[in-house]
Structures are given as structure tokens and as C-alpha cells.
Write a sequence for this structure.
């Protein structure tokens, strides 16, 4: 609304403002400056900046029969098959509720060089669990024969995922680079990560007023700005927000009608700890909820429980024949497995895990 008001002022006639025509140019100049100032303020109000400096120790080098391995404290030494295996630091940033990520800038600062003509070991090929082990990869000569720094970037945005009303931006930071053809190492003592955000335009989901704490700050490593969740997730008492028509049920057990009595001791124990608990049968979910199969119906029920009851914990009570898994698609190197048993489908409630509508769930970009 503010830009509309300011644009209206720019087109007022001089006499409407009580100004003589001879002063029209001066007044228009002042109004233009005022409007631009307000527009700048409005723009700033619609966006935010998250900036963190992450510091690293100098890398250590371990020589092996196949070449050199670099290690930096707090980092993983990994890479794509055939590319130099280098330290990587996976950082996570919480995007405030109601905002979305607009841009990411990653810049390495100060550090040094190591001129030891090192041959960095190429990362091995991935392998499925239960097989013989990681196979050696042939070095990618397009990279190993180059005098350009590898990787080219100081870091990349890996993915943006969601938890409740928050987005989580996962950033891969490269504290070390290599000049493959010469074996020279470039390393950074600090890396500055700057994230620009803007209002997402999405309404916060109806579960938010229950005051659910964002417990992911204790489950995800390397969160750089946990204060965002701490500042915005202040507890809300049930008496303040809950009416008798919409009870707060933080703990839900989903099981079969036959096993429901067996889970009553669990429900009783949770109630003793102050968690109102409800047991719901798979049959009742199947008849009451929409979905193309029982997995989707159960997931839709959990979404409704989160929104309507403020449910934070769900116990899936039973094996696969009672609570069917949703098979997920995984490709590791040349190996493809289209049916990895997983319960993550019932926990990650954004999207539908199958945006292209084929028979494979959890393909890259559908998590």
C-alpha cells in the first residue's frame, strides 16, 4: 500500500499542495526524493540479511600410496567420483518464518597457499551397503590437467528444505581449493556467507499458534543461526490458545485395531509426562482421509493432526504390513534402487514427494 500512496503524491497538481507554479519544480524534486526514501525503507522492510563468518584451521596433509588427503577440522573430505577429494563444511541456516531465500553469496578470506606439488586422491565411487566396498575411481583428466582452481566456487547452495514454518538453507563450503595440474593448495582461514531473504507471500500454517518449538536446532548439525528459532518460537500455553472444541494433542499413536490395546501402556506413560495422547487406527484413517493409497492417507492424516491438534510426535505402531512404507528412489553412481523402505515420507510433510507424478517417490528435487 505504501508505494501506491507515494506514487499518488508524485502526480498531485501544485495547487493541490498549496504551492505556487513557480515552485513546482522544487516541490516535485522534494517529493521525488521523499518518495524514493520511503520506497527504499519499504524495500528494506520486505527483506532481510543473514551474514555469518565461519572460521577454519589450516589443513593437514596425509600422504598415502595413492596420493595426498587433505583434512580440515570439522569438515568432511569428500567429492564426486573421479574429482579431487577435498574438505567440505556443510552449514545450515534457518530462514525466518514467512520469508524465503533470495540470494546466497559465499566468499573465502585470508589464508594461505601450500606449494608442495600434491597429488590429491580422487574421490571413490559410491557403493550400495552390503557390497565389497568403495571402488577406486579414475581421475577426471579434464580436472586434473587444469591449472584453474578446483572447485571454482568458495561454496554452493546445496538445497533448501523445510521444517514447520521455517526454511532451512544447506550450504556446502569449500575451505580448500587445489590447482590440480600443479598440486598447489589454496586455503581460507575464514569464509563469509551472506543470505538475502524476502517475504515469501505464504501464510503461516495453522499449526503455528500451538507454539510448537522448533526442535530441529538440536537435531541438525552446524546450524549457524539458531537464535532465529529461539527468538520466534516462544512457547504458547494451551490455556491461551486452545479451546475445548480443538484440543491440543501433542502425541499420536497410529496402529491397527488389534494392536491398539497393546499401545495403551505407552499412551499412559506419555500422559504421565504431561503429553495428551490419542491412539488412531489405520482403518479409521483409511475410511476418513483422502489419498490414492493408504500411505498417502496416513500422511494426510498426520498433516491434519499437526495443523488441527498441534501434534508434534507420531508413533507408527506396527511393521510394514500395518504401516506400509513409502519406497523411495535412490541413484548412487550407476546403481539404482527404486524402493528403499523409509518412514521419512511420514515425517517430511511439505510437497508430495512425487512432483512429476511418475511411479518413483523421492527423486532428486522431490525430497
Amino acid at each position: 500500500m505504501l508505494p501506491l500512496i507515494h506514487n499518488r503524491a508524485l502526480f498531485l497538481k501544485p495547487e493541490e499542495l498549496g504551492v505556487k507554479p513557480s515552485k513546482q519544480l522544487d516541490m516535485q524534486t522534494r517529493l521525488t526524493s521523499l518518495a524514493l526514501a520511503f520506497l527504499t525503507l519499504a524495500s528494506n522492510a520486505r527483506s532481510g540479511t543473514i551474514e555469518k563468518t565461519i572460521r577454519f584451521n589450516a589443513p593437514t596433509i596425509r600422504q598415502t600410496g595413492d596420493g595426498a588427503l587433505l583434512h580440515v577440522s570439522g569438515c568432511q573430505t569428500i567429492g564426486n567420483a573421479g574429482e579431487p577429494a577435498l574438505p567440505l563444511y556443510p552449514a545450515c541456516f534457518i530462514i525466518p518464518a514467512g520469508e524465503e531465500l533470495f540470494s546466497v553469496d559465499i566468499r573465502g578470506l585470508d589464508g594461505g597457499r601450500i606449494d608442495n606439488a600434491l597429488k590429491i586422491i580422487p574421490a571413490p565411487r559410491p557403493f550400495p551397503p552390503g557390497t565389497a566396498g568403495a571402488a577406486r575411481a579414475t581421475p577426471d583428466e579434464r580436472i586434473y590437467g587444469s591449472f584453474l582452481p578446483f572447485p571454482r566456487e568458495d561454496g554452493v547452495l546445496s538445497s533448501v528444505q523445510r521444517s514447520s514454518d521455517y526454511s532451512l538453507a544447506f550450504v556446502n563450503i569449500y575451505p580448500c581449493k587445489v590447482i590440480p595440474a600443479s598440486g598447489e593448495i589454496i586455503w581460507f582461514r575464514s569464509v563469509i556467507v551472506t543470505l538475502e531473504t524476502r517475504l515469501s507471500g505464504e501464510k503461516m500454517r495453522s499449526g503455528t499458534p500451538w507454539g510448537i518449538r522448533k526442535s530441529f536446532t538440536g537435531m541438525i548439525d552446524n546450524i549457524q543461526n539458531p537464535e532465529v528459532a529461539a527468538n520466534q518460537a516462544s512457547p504458547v500455553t494451551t490455556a491461551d490458545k486452545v479451546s475445548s472444541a480443538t484440543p491440543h494433542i501433542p502425541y499420536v499413536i497410529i496402529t491397527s485395531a488389534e494392536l491398539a490395546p497393546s499401545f495403551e501402556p505407552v499412551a499412559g506413560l506419555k500422559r504421565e509426562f504431561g503429553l495428551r495422547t490419542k491412539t488412531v487406527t489405520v482403518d479409521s484413517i483409511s475410511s476418513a482421509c483422502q489419498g490414492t493409497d493408504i500411505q498417502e492417507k496416513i500422511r494426510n492424516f498426520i498433516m491434519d493432526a499437526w495443523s488441527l491438534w498441534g501434534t508434534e510426535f507420531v508413533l507408527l505402531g506396527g511393521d510394514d504390513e500395518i504401516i506400509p512404507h513409502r519406497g523411495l528412489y535412490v541413484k548412487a553412481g550407476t546403481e539404482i534402487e527404486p524402493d528403499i523402505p523409509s518412514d521419512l515420507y511420514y515425517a517430511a510433510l511439505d510437497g508430495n514427494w512425487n512432483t512429476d507424478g511418475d511411479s518413483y517417490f523421492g527423486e532428486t528435487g522431490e525430497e
About this structure: The chain is about 20% helix and 30% strand. The helical segments are 2-10, 24-45, 141-144, 227-232, 238-241, 264-272, 282-288, 294-309. Residues 49 and 304 are 33 Å apart (CA to CA). The two ends are 37 Å apart (CA to CA).
